[in-house]
Amino acid sequence: MAATASEGPFSRALPWLVPLALIILWQVSSSLGWLPPNILPAPTAVLEAAWTKLQDGSLIDNLGVSFARAMSGLIIGGAIGFSLGLLNGLSKTGEMLLDPTLQMIRNIPHLALIPLVIIWFGIGESARLFLVALGVFFPIYLNTLHGVRNVDPQLIEMGRIYGMNNRTLFLKVILPGALPSIFVGLRFALGVMWLTLIVAETIAANSGIGHMAMAAREFMQTDIVVLSIVIYAILGKLADSATRALERKFLAWNPAYAKV
Amino acid sequence: MSSQPTGGSRVSLKDVKKAFGSNVVLQGIDLEIPAGQFVSIVGKSGCGKSTLLRLMIGLDSVTSGALDAPALKEQAARIVFQEPRLLPWASVKDNVAVGLGEGQSGQAADKQAAEILEEVGLKGREGLWPSQLSGGMRQRVALARALVSQPTLLALDEPLGALDALTRIDMQALLEGVWQDLGFTALMVTHDVGEAVALGDRVILIDHGQVVLDLPVDLPRPRKRGTPEFAALEGQILDKLFGDDPRAREAH
Ligand SMILES: Nc1ncnc2c1ncn2[C@@H]1O[C@H](COP(=O)(O)OP(=O)(O)O)[C@@H](O)[C@H]1O
Ligand SMILES: [Mg+2]
Question: Atom 25 of ligand 1 has which residue's CA nearest to it?
C-alpha cells in the first residue's frame, strides 16, 4: 500500500496541495483587502521584506547569530546530556547517585527559570546559552540513558563470550544499540532548542531573529514579524531534515529507517 | 568446500555437580566425550541441559567434581544459541568477524570470513544486513561466526529451535556437512528426539540433573528417518523420557 502511494508525480505533489491553497487564499484575501496588512501582511509583502533584509545584510547577520546560539546551546547541553546518559546507563552507581535528582529537576519547565537566569547572568549571551543548553539537556540525557539501558542483554552476553573488551563492547554493541533512541532524543532536543531560542531572543536580545521580530513589532512592521516566524519554521524544518539524513546514514541497518 | 578441517577436542566430566545457591541443577555427571564426536543432548525443559553446555564450554564453573576440556585452555570453545544474536547494525561479514576476536581485521580476516561463509552456504551475502536475511540464513551467520576462529569444541543450544520445519531439515543437513568437513566436537541440545538421533553419534538424556541414558547411534550417515533402526532408537529415548505415560508419548 505504502509502495503504490509513494509512486507517481501526482502522489508526490499531494502533500503540497493544502499549503499551496492556503497561501493562495492568503494572498487573495490580502489583495482584496479582506486581510488588513497591520493584522497579516500579504505573502508577497513578506517576500519583499525578506529581499530588503537580505540586501542590507541584516537578515544574514541575524540568522547567523541565531544559528550560532542554537548550535552552541545544542552542543553544550547535548554533550553534557549524552555524557551523563552514558555514564548513568553504564554505571549502576552513577545512576543511583544522579538519576533521581535529574528526574526531579526534569519536572521544572526550564523556561520558568528565566527570571532567575536573568538575575544570574543578566540578559547577555550566557543567559540564552544557558537556557538552550538546559532545555536540550533533558531529552538527550533521558533518551541516551534509555537507549543504553535497553540494549539487548543477549547481544552484550554474546560480545563478552567472544572476548570483546569494554571499549569494543561499547563501540560495537552498546553505542550502536542505543543510537536509535539517541536520535529520538536529538529530534526532541531540536524542537526544544528552537522554542527556547525564540523565547530567549524575544524577551531579551539585541541581535538574532527574535530580536529582529521584536524590533519590527515596535514599528508595526508585520511583514518582518511574519518573516521572522517563517524563518524559524524553515530553520526547524532544516534541522529536522538534517536529523533524518543522519538517521538514514547511521541507522540504515534498521528496516524502519532504511527507506528513502 | 574451502575451509580446512580443524579437528576436535575431548571433554571429560567426573562426578560433576552444579548448584545455584541451594538449587542443585546437575549432579553425578560422568561423561567421556572423545574428540570429534557429535553428541546430542535431550531432556525435559528445565532439566539442566543449557547449564551442562555452559559448563562444558567454560561459561560457568562447576560446583564440585572435575571437568577437563583442552579446548577451554586454548580458547577454542564456541557456542551457538537458539537466537542468532547477530549485531543488527553490522553486515554479515562484520558479524562473522566478531568471531575472530579483538584486533583481527584486514585481508587475512576477510579471507577467513569469506571461507567460512562459503562453508555455510552464504557466499555472496557478505554485505547484507541481518534484517535482510531469513531466519535460517541468520542462524548460518551465527554458525559462521562461531566457526571462523576454528574452534575444536562447538556447543549448540537448541540451534534450530526457532526455525520452521522445512528450514530445520535444511539446516540439519548443513550442520552435519559442516561438522563432517571441519571435524570439531559438537555438543547439541535439542528438544527434537528425531533431530538428536539424526545428527548424534550418541544421544544423552538428562533428567533431574542426571544422565539417565547414554545411547550410541550406530547408523550410517546421512540417516534416513523412516527406517526401523531409526524408529527403534527414537522409541528407546521417548520411553525413557516419558516412562510409562502413554498420553505424553502420544503427544510427542
Ligand atoms: N544463572 C542461573 N542462576 C540460577 N539458576 C539457574 C541459572 N541458570 C539456570 N538455572 C536453573 O537451572 C535449572 C536448569 O536450567 P537450564 O539448564 O536452563 O535448563 P534447560 O536448558 O534444560 O531447559 C533451572 O531450574 C534454572 O532455573
Ligand atoms: Mg535451555
Answer: B46
In a shared domain, residues B111 and B72 = no
A248-257 contacts at long range (C-beta below 8 A, 24 or more positions apart): A250/A179, A250/A183, A251/A179, A251/A180, A251/A183, A251/B89, A252/B129, A253/B88, A253/B89, A253/B90, A253/B129, A253/B130, A253/B131, A254/A180, A254/B88, A254/B89, A254/B131, A255/B131, A257/A180
Domain housing B8: 1-76+153-252
Give me Rg for the CA atoms of chain A.
23
Q: What is the pLDDT of residues A70-98, one digit of tens each?
A: 999 999 999 999 999 999 999 999 999 99
Q: Is residue A5 over pLDDT 60? A: no
Boundary-marking domain end, from B149, B167, B198:
B149
Query: What are the backbone dihedrals phi and psi of residue B34, each rounded to the nearest 5 degrees, phi first?
Result: -70, 160
Retrieve residue B12's grid coordinates.
571429560
Report the C-alpha gap between A223 and A211 in whole angstroms: 14
CA neighbor of A77 nearest in space, from A190, A232, A163, A201: A190
Mutate to test the interface with B, among A165, A166, A253 (most CBs of B within 10 A): A253
Instruction: Answer with the one of B117, B149, B181 that is the final residue of a domain.
Output: B149
For ligand 1, whether the C-beta of B50 sits within 6 Å is yes
Same domain, residue pair B224 and B113: no
B42 in contact with ligand 1, CB cutoff 6 A: no
The predicted-structure confidence for A134-174, as pLDDT tens digits, reads as follows 999 999 999 999 999 999 999 999 999 999 999 999 999 99
Pair A189, A79: CB distance under 8 Å: no
**Mean pLDDT in residue range A109-116:** 91
CB A87 within 8 A of CB A160: no
* 3 state SS of A112: helix
Q: Which helix (H) or strand (E) holds A56?
A: none
Shared domain check, B158 and B60: yes
Answer yes or no: are the C-beta atoms of B178 and B166 closer than 8 Å: no
Same domain for B54 and B170? yes
Q: How many residues does chain A have?
A: 260
Hunting for cell 564440585 — which residue is that? B64
Instruction: Report the C-alpha gap between B192 and B187 in whole angstroms.
Output: 14
ipTM of the complex, rounded to two decimals = 0.89
Whole-model pTM: value is 0.87
Question: In this complex, do A177 and B99 lie within 8 Å of one another by their Cβ atoms?
Answer: no
Q: What CATH number does the domain containing B189 carry?
A: 3.40.50.300
